[in-house]
Amino acid sequence: MKRRTDAPQDRYYMVGLMFFILGLGTLLPWNFFMTASLYFQRRLETNESSNGTEVVRKEYYFNNWMTLLSQLPLLLFTLLNSFLYPRISEAIRIAGSLVFILLLFILTAVLVKVPMEEDCFFSVTMATIWFINSFGAVLQGSLFGLVGMLPQKYSSIFMSGQGLAGTFAAIAMLIAIGSKTDHETAALGYFITPCVGTLLTLFSYLVLPRLGFAQYYLKKSSTYEADTTDELLKGKLWLHKQLFTIIWVMAFCVTFVFTVTLSVFPAITVDVKTTSEGENWESYFISVCCFLIFNINDWLGRTITTKIRWPSKESRLFPVLVISRVGFIPLLMFCNVQSRNYLPVLFEHDAAFSVIMVFFSLSSGYFVCLSMSYAPQLVEPKDAETAGALMTFFLALGLSIGAALSFPLRKLI
């Protein structure tokens, strides 16, 4: 979208900052639950006595179920949000979702101090993950539609904020691990952090309409929506079909990128074991080499798109490069994932795993951000918000397919 010559200035780049924080807030729930896998696994480690003598550890497959139950509601509610957003005001969708996410985070923090039987704790955690990602889907879809009304660079800024959410969560976990407090107190501090982050996100959304630059671009969105609500409700499916014929390449690209990414991260990468000796490094290894490396480079890949946009949206090379990322799946499966039954370990050293993770995450962030920012440019300005919401559905579709594939891929190892 070209910037109008009569548009006001984004003073002190405040609108960019607000969308960066909003992007950060949309992925805080997913990243804080994902990065806390060590905490959840510790609470779910249990030994069951069989025949009075044999001791068997019950396997919950927490990371696989967490990934799947995060992405299925994301897919479902993104689809519902895409078709029904004219029925519910933007303020209720965004502010309401943030309030419920905050309440669910508070519940998770409280449960840190509540003793629970493992099966019960697993069930409550999975239900929390389901609901928190349901509200997150509505939030993300609404904000993607909103940022699609602004110049393209704001979409990149928004997604850069999303990329930083993972880094934020990984650093918070490292601080929790490195603290001298007991596990419960460290976990409590860890889950209080996203509560503060969600409050900051809510504040940023409430401030946004008061900024002249945002008012200029977003008011035409509300005017268009008010004038055409009946039309959207009656012909929503036809409109989406029309837009899909225009943006289908970008929809395919964002779906494929996340299918590859979620098929191995974190369900497989979190089970990679260090070959270096030293108890201290072992406790930090996954937080650093899996989560921190992934999230820093994913954020870097998204941020690069504010300066570099190659290949262009018309280039046939773009989907080819996206498809080539499928090679990361076997590369990561051949790392030192434990335990394993079938495949050999080809990349045993920590450095090999780290290098693969760098390129894996850098390419993920870069191609996702390009796909999401290119799509609204391919349609008329009045359809940019709908195109952004539609692309969010395909983003969620890729996440869900990848989460489902993580089960058989983990079994193959």
Automatic annotation (TrEMBL):
It is found in: Membrane. It comes from the Eukaryota. Coiled coil: none annotated. Keywords: Membrane, Transmembrane, Transmembrane helix, Transport. The chain crosses the membrane at residues 12-40, 60-80, 92-112, 124-150, 157-177, 189-208, 243-264, 284-305, 317-339, 351-375, 387-407. One of its GO terms (molecular function) is nucleoside transmembrane transporter activity. One of its GO terms (biological process) is uridine transmembrane transport. It holds the Pfam family Nucleoside_tran. It is a multi-pass membrane protein. One of its GO terms (cellular component) is basolateral plasma membrane. Belongs to the SLC29A/ENT transporter (TC 2.A.57) family. This is Solute carrier family 29 member 2.
